[in-house]
Amino acid sequence: MTYETEQERFWSGDFGEGYRERNRSEALLMSKIALWNRILASAHGVASICELGCNIGLNLAALHRIAPKTALSAVEINAEAAAQARALNVAEVTTGTILAPLDLPPVDLAFTCGVLIHISPDHLAKAYENLVRLSRRYVVVAEYYNPSPVSVPYRGHADRLFKRDFAGELMDGYGLKLVDYGFVWRRDNWAPQDDVTWFLLEK
To answer: Is residue 1 situated within a structural domain?
Structure first.
């Protein structure tokens, strides 16, 4: 597969495989279940969900535990991670980049979790477009928040992690409405996440 950006090549290769191994734990799965219980409490009538950038499928596994009858699908750029997510047998997982046009059926809720932060700002609009177009009703972004765009060194690499107000840009650019939002602190006593701020938006 040919990629347009340095970030795509970065995550499709060895570094993406290292990320996969670092994020494999039962404790993280439990925290994902807690996160999605909070989000889905404010999202009604959701029968289908698609994740853009699913890695090994922890969000998909959590969603399947919470709502086993919900139709799940995903796109993942790293082939080995996609294969592992597919092997969970809970979702239809496509190997590919979320910066290319997606030939996927629309779903009730489309989301990213720790993915938009790794996309070059020059190409972020393509991810936004795919995310919004894929959704019939709800969009969720669970990312690192910053009120203004900033690039942060990531494990010794430059231009690999970008913080900004992703939800605000989606609301301003696509007319989405805020339904709910929250923050999960890394020092939470019960279900910690890596300082993730999540937003549930509606068309």
So the answer is: no
pTM comes to 0.88
Into how many domains does the chain fold? 1
CB 163 within 8 A of CB 146: yes
Q: Residue 197 is inside which H or E element, if any?
A: strand 196-202
Please provide the size of the chain in residues: 203
In a domain, 61, yes or no: yes
pLDDT tens, residue order, the chain (203 aa): 555 666 556 555 555 455 555 555 678 899 999 999 999 999 999 999 999 999 999 999 999 999 999 999 999 999 999 999 999 999 999 999 999 999 999 999 999 999 999 999 999 999 999 999 999 999 999 999 999 999 988 765 666 789 999 999 999 999 999 999 999 999 999 999 999 999 999 99
Degrees, nearest 5: CA angle 118-131-175 = 110
Q: Give the domain extent around 75.
A: 6-202
For residues 140 and 200, the answer to whether their CB atoms sit within 8 Å is yes
Q: Is residue 176 part of a domain?
A: yes
